[in-house]
Write a structure and sequence with these properties.
With 131 residues, the protein is an all-alpha fold. Helix content is 58%, strand content 0%. Helix 2 packs across helix 3. The termini are far apart.
Length: 131
């Protein structure tokens, strides 16, 4: 999810991504990924950005939770083994586009798995009929 408000304010104020990146103590490529929505912006950074642009946080803040889809029924996401931290929390900063790509790949693998099962079943049936 692109940070349209953030990008718009930056451009209206006449700042480059490099200038903003320098202020929040990161490199320009990381800031660019933050602005494009590929990297999560933490609360401290939202506060710094608001100070830099001299605007209230509400004028630039955009919610991060948009397109992330998580299967809470999957055992991996309910694992409490990581020091009592719900594993689902560890995945909250994965960009939605990556999640969507992985879900598409999983669907493709499931289709291929079903096709191979059918092929194996037909092969076994064929070899039995030849005997």
């Amino acid at each position: 999810m692109q940070k349209e408000k953030l990008r718009l304010i930056r451009k209206q104020k006449g700042y480059t991504q490099q200038q903003v990146a320098d202020y929040i103590a990161t490199d320009v490529s990381n800031y660019s990924r933050k602005e494009s929505g590929d990297v999560r912006i933490v609360q401290d950074e939202w506060d710094k950005l608001a100070r830099f642009f001299e605007v209230p946080v509400e004028d630039i803040y955009e919610d991060e939770s948009a397109a992330i889809i998580v299967n809470n029924d999957h055992p991996v996401f309910n694992d409490q083994s990581a020091g009592g931290i719900n594993t689902q929390q560890q995945y909250n900063n994965i960009p939605g586009s990556i999640i969507e790509n992985l879900q598409g790949y999983i669907a493709l693998l499931k289709e291929e798995n079903e096709r191979l099962k059918e092929e194996l079943k037909n092969s076994q049936t064929s070899s039995r009929s030849r005997k």
